[in-house]
Every structure is written in C-alpha cells, then in structure tokens.
C-alpha cells in the first residue's frame, strides 16, 4: 500500500472510530476541512511532515520510519499496558489509586464508581490523545470491544463529567 493511501485509511478510520467529524478534526488540528477531506480521500497533493504529524498526533497516531528487519531478529520488549499507564496517570494527584482492571470496567461499561470520578475526569481532560487511543486499541485487541464503542463511552463520560476538552465536543 502506498504511503498516502495508508495515511488516508488510518486518518479516516481513526476519525470515524473517535466519532469526530472532518470539521471537528480540522478545528483540533488547525487544518482546513478541505485538507482533512483530501487526506482522507488520498487526493492531497502536498502535505508537509509537520502538518501530517500534527494531524496524526491529534488522532493518537504517529509517523514512524524504520528499516525493515528480518522476522527472526524482531522481538518485543516487555512494557506496561496502556491501561496500566493510564491508571498511574489518572491516580497521580489522588490518595486512592484506580487500577487497570477498574479502568477496563469503566471504559467498557461507562459506569464509574463515585470514588473514581475525579480520576476519570483527569484522564479524559488531560491525558495525551495517543494514550487514550492506546487504551481503545488495547480493549479492542484483548477483549474484542469495538473501537467505536470505547470512543463512544469515553465521549459520554467526558460529557457527563463536563469536560471542556475540544476532543469531546
């Protein structure tokens, strides 16, 4: 797949999964709606790396340049799951900590125990979009939850908690 087609597919899919319109995505990125449309349709003639990185960053995606490696040499390093990182991030300023299992429950059911309302608000209001996108991807891959459903739950929670972040409007 060519780079522009891969980019257009990733942007279109992630935007739709997040429940954003092209207009809202354009506002969040500082690009025009026409530019977002051209990217999604693969018809953009010139998109700088800076503009592409900004667009992808808002969607929790990134551009990576790597040299191909033979499969026999590839290995994964052990790392924390997105839910573990998010739980630590959400708990920084609070005496009681939320854990990854509790976050998993919140983002799959939309139900938040009263004690953890501030944690969820903080996460939805301040966490990098890339972390939120990683949570969505993790829930999709590990539990089979549809990405659009997780984004919808996040958006509903953000609205219920009165988040002012443009992402949730």
Automatic annotation (TrEMBL):
PROSITE patterns: HTH_CROC1. It holds the Pfam family HTH_3. InterPro entries: Cro/C1-type_HTH (IPR001387), Lambda_DNA-bd_dom_sf (IPR010982). GO terms for molecular function: DNA binding. It comes from the Bacteria. Residues 11-66 form the HTH cro/C1-type domain. This is Transcriptional regulator, XRE family. It comes from Albidiferax ferrireducens (strain ATCC BAA-621 / DSM 15236 / T118).
